[in-house]
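Quick one - inputs below.
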Amino acid sequence: SAVISQKPSRDICQRGTSLTIQCQVDSQVTMMFWYRQQPGQSLTLIATANQGSEATYESGFVIDKFPISRPNLTFSTLTVSNMSPEDSSIYLCSVRAGGNTEAFFGQGTRLTVV
Amino acid sequence: DQQVKQNSPSLSVQEGRISILNCDYTNSMFDYFLWYKKYPAEGPTFLISISSIKDKNEDGRFTVFLNKSAKHLSLHIVPSQPGDSAVYFCAARTINAGNNRKLIWGLGTSLAVNP
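Output:
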């Protein structure tokens, strides 16, 4: 199993500012995933973060808006840049178990942009 | 367009009875289906999965049934316990570009098990 610590757990931010969310895993993992869950919506994959290479973004998400760092095999950050109220969501990081399926999630970051 | 649908936003059952959570999908290219459980202020927790080549998978009180012809799966919890009260997400796995697997999620069903 893997234990994932995600910080901050919640924040209220002013529009136009940026917030960096941290995700720390207690074991080395190759791939980490960042999700967003907007109010009343399902979880949506933002990007896949691989150590030592650029993150792979899903359709509708761009690096300028959601830059990701992956400096080592246990840590990743997601930045929500130039925030607007539409960015108010829960952001989650996740890692896969050996079976190629997201099995472990952080507790999420509840972001409110005012 | 929602490819994975959980049409019931909420479900309430009595302790000891069966809870049945339903999920429908529209894409035949999914190879695995998964159920996750989520408590408030926590991330989703993997519960049980089923391969698209099977029709049933059981793990203790939890059983998932898959009906491929109907593109429908269900999660049965027997007997239901108050600690099962949570939001349950159905997710389907597809192969993304570059052979990466990707999960498509439903909106979730909030289960309340009443003592």
